[in-house]
């Protein structure tokens, strides 16, 4: 069953301080950093957090604050509805915060000198020199020149291509694998599919966030070390730091006996939380598969703040070095984001350097934030992704501004009004997709009847896989004005094998023009998207292909047009 708004019953557990873990010797602190400021996760702060969770429909949240030598951790709300509370030990999926650990592990492997044969030019080593047969891009120059640094800083020239991303098999559970054509998928197989995906820029020209490049880096690490990535991260990072509740495999996490939070999304129509029992992003390897908790991540951040073992001073400097400008079409909501490094966005907040990264899976959100100048950091987890990450950004900003002693009049806006405006705009855009994509058409719906049965079949692209369409009755989308929905039929294809399982819904507009709606099978309506589509029809009047034009990954760059040939 679903659950009505949890606003009436969120529980707050008592905050507690966690002493510095044995073996994590911190560097000496400056005098002004040794002042005991007390626990910021007070009862009053808990009420503030609870209010945000109620307002933005986030069932559970876990926080840890690192301030000098002290760590304070707290759980809010529920890890499993209706009444299992979140604790600091509760496990959550960490999503893209995995990337920083891949970056740190790779920096460590490069710095040790043990793999000089493979990393002959350090970060400037071309990936194809390590995994030559597998790493082939859509262009000879890019194939031979894209480096480890290009991939890790999202400047390879390849856009996201997330709708082409099929999850990687879980090597620790032979019965729990992602399969394509009945074959278990691997990092190697994913990397080999890159040759079928177009680039939208020359390498090193522009920032384009690309999860698939972190799959390539995962394959590099596994090839060079001869070990599964999860074992490498455990040996290099987790074990030395005492991160004993951190995993790269959902099956390992389950076997550990730790409480794992259930992911949820809020159904606006039904006014209830809906649970998602599995999250396919668990199969995303080094791009986003980490499973951990606030206590373990506080150890990770403390290591970075105090520049302690297991990393050398040179590796810590490597971790903090900016690699590329991140310009993605607009300023950050509340602070300046200008650079990207080894899985870190590098920003400034009130003149202080900030390293941060969010992680979003199907139904989990994670934030990691640290300010090396003042030895301060925050980690947060939520079992709701979009609004979960949003309110954790607000919470982190407040904690940081409290720590900096920023006067109320000088504090940055928390972005709530803009967030509400943007969500409403996104909903309107989705329900007005026809007029946005085809402004010359005056109505939503087709001007002439179309025989939907003619287009039934399977359409295939070597990079994006197969879509098998069937005809269904068209229903208004949630939140749509039903008076504008004149279509009676639609084509529907389901892709449960994607990292974010999707339904593609095709609705005819007029002539050759269609709208392709991408709707998550499990998850928030905020992730819905729409694209222009056209069927290619042969001289016999039968469709031979389907063309879909994905919006450009970065403003001003070329769009990605993908042709799916009819194969059945």
From TrEMBL:
Entry keyword annotation includes Signal: yes
Keywords: Signal
Signal peptide (from-to): 1-25
Domain of life: Eukaryota
Keyword Signal carried by entry: yes
All copies of domain Beta-lactamase-related, residue ranges: 47-390
Protein name: Beta-lactamase-related domain-containing protein
Family: Belongs to the peptidase S12 family.
Cited Pfam families: Beta-lactamase
Gene source species: Beauveria bassiana (White muscardine disease fungus)
């Amino acid at each position: 069953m679903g659950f009505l708004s949890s606003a009436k019953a969120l529980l707050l557990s008592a905050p507690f301080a966690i002493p510095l873990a044995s073996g994590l010797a911190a560097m000496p602190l400056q005098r002004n950093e040794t002042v005991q400021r007390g626990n910021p996760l007070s009862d009053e702060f808990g009420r503030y957090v609870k209010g945000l969770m109620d307002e933005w429909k986030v069932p559970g949240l876990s926080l840890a604050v690192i301030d000098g030598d002290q760590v304070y951790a707290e759980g809010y709300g529920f890890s499993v509805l209706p009444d299992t509370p979140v604790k600091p030990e509760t496990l959550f999926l960490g999503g893209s915060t995995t990337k920083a650990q891949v970056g740190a592990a790779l920096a460590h492997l490069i710095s040790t000198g043990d793999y000089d044969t493979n990393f002959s030019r350090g970060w400037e080593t071309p990936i194809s020199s390590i995994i030559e047969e597998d790493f082939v891009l859509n262009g000879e120059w890019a194939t031979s020149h894209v480096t480890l640094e290009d991939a890790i800083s999202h400047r390879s020239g390849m856009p996201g291509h997330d709708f082409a991303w099929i999850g990687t098999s879980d090597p620790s559970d032979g019965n729990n694998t992602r399969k394509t054509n009945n074959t278990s998928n691997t990092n190697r197989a994913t990397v080999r599919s890159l040759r079928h995906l177009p680039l939208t820029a020359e390498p090193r020209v522009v920032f384009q966030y690309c999860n698939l490049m972190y799959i390539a880096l995962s394959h590099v690490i596994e090839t060079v070390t001869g070990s599964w990535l999860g074992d490498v991260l455990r040996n290099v990072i987790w074990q030395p730091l005492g991160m004993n509740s951190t995993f790269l495999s959902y099956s390992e996490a389950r076997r550990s006996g730790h409480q794992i939070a259930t992911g949820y999304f809020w159904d606006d129509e039904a006014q209830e939380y809906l649970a998602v029992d599995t999250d396919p992003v668990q199969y995303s390897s080094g791009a986003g598969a980490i499973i951990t908790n606030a206590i373990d991540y506080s150890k990770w951040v403390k290591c970075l703040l105090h520049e302690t073992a297991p990393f050398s001073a040179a590796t810590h400097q490597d971790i903090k070095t900016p690699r590329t400008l991140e310009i993605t079409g607009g300023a950050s909501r509340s602070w300046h984001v200008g650079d990207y490094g080894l899985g870190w966005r590098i920003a400034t907040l009130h003149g202080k350097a900030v390293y941060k990264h969010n992680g979003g899976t199907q139904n989990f959100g994670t934030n990691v934030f640290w300010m090396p100048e003042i030895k301060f950091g925050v980690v947060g987890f939520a079992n709701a992704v979009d609004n979960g990450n949003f309110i954790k950004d607000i919470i982190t900003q407040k904690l940081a501004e409290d720590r900096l002693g920023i006067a109320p009049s000088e504090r940055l806006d928390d972005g709530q009004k803009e967030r509400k405006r943007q969500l409403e705009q996104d909903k309107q855009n989705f329900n007005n997709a026809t007029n946005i994509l085809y402004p010359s058409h005056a109505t939503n719906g087709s001007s002439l009847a179309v025989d939907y049965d003619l287009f039934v079949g399977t359409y295939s692209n070597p990079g994006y896989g197969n879509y098998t369409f069937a005809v269904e009755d068209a229903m208004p989308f949630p939140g749509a004005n039903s008076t504008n929905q004149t279509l009676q039929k639609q084509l529907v294809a389901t892709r449960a094998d994607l990292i974010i399982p999707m339904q593609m819904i095709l609705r005819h507009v007029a002539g050759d023009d269609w709208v392709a709606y991408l709707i998550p099978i499990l998850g928030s309506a905020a992730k819905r998207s729409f694209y222009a589509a056209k069927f290619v029809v042969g001289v016999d009047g039968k469709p031979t292909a389907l063309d879909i034009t994905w919006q450009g990954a970065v403003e001003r760059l070329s769009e990605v047009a993908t042709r799916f040939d009819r194969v059945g």
